[in-house]
Amino acid sequence: MSEPADEDDLELGSDLFGRWRDDEQAGQVEVQAAAADPAAERIQAQWDAAKARLLKRWPKLAGPMVDELTAQAESAVEAGDLALLGELQVSAGVIAAVAVPIRKAGTDLAVEAAAGVVQEAAEQSVSISAPDAPARDRVEQHADAVARIIANGYASGAARTALQLAGSGPAEVRAEVQRHLDELGQSVNGLVGDNISSLLSAAQHAGRLAVMEQQPGNAVRAVEINDRQRCKPCTDASKRVYPNLRAALKDYPVSGNRSCSGRGRCRGFLRMAF
Question: How many domains does the chain have?
Answer without folding.
Answer: 2
